[in-house]
Amino acid sequence: MTPCVGPLSPAAQCRRFLTQHLHQAERVLDIGCGAGDLLREYLARDCEAVGLEIDDALVHRHRAAGLDVRLGRAEELPFEDASFDRILCSVVVPYTDPRRTVAEWARVLRPGGIVLATYHGPGYGLRYLWHGETLQQRAYGGRMLLNTLSFRVTRRRLPGFLGDTLCQTHAGLLRHYSAAGLELQEERVFDRYAGLTRFFGHRLGKPTDGSSAVSPSLAPHQASA
Fold first, then answer.
1. Does residue 210 come out as left (phi exceeding 0), alpha (psi in the -120 to 50 range) or beta?
2. Residue environment code for 42-79, b if the CB has 16+ CB neighbours within 10 A, otherwise e
3. Which residues, in sequence order, are bridge partners of residue 29?
4. Is 198 left (phi over 0), alpha (psi -120 to 50) or beta?
5. Per-residue pLDDT tens over the stretch 14-44
6. Cα angle: 207, vertex 28, 34; to 5 degrees
């Protein structure tokens, strides 16, 4: 696990990570494209960039602005198999079913393609719980950690708003990657809190021969992060 240090904020480090190793003419999918900033950056670098959003109104606004954004969910991508060279997923997985989301990445990614994903680690929820500025923020951190623990034990989210988000861990994500046939190529930590990972990123690859492997240096001996 490689720390990323320097004057950049965690958000800026995440953004830099999501635009690394860029090749022109790639077909790129940004899952949960939000305001569309990454789409515009990839378009400016001569890539074919497609976005996905769950909010119908936001999809219409992006289309009116000339961006190719589709309506859909991360767990059921409205695209054909092996149709993208690169997938971006910026802190979207915490709000989805991680297993199904990762399986969809593998389905729509071409052999030899990569996924660049960023996540909330346990330190994200703990910081809100201990140092949230409002009772609402502290409650958010508490329910995030409680839901993460429940999901780890039962593989089910808590009901209603209690289960709206999860913290991701190295070990848990490795299980999803292995099941989907994706290879973890790089793990980078952008920020920690109380010794626990707060923001981190993974670069994944889809092998060209259908095999799946995890680098020994990235084995889950640091699963608490």
1. left
2. bbeeebebbbbbeeeebbeebeeeebebbebbbeebeb
3. 50, 87
4. alpha
5. 999 999 877 778 999 999 999 999 999 999 9
6. 125
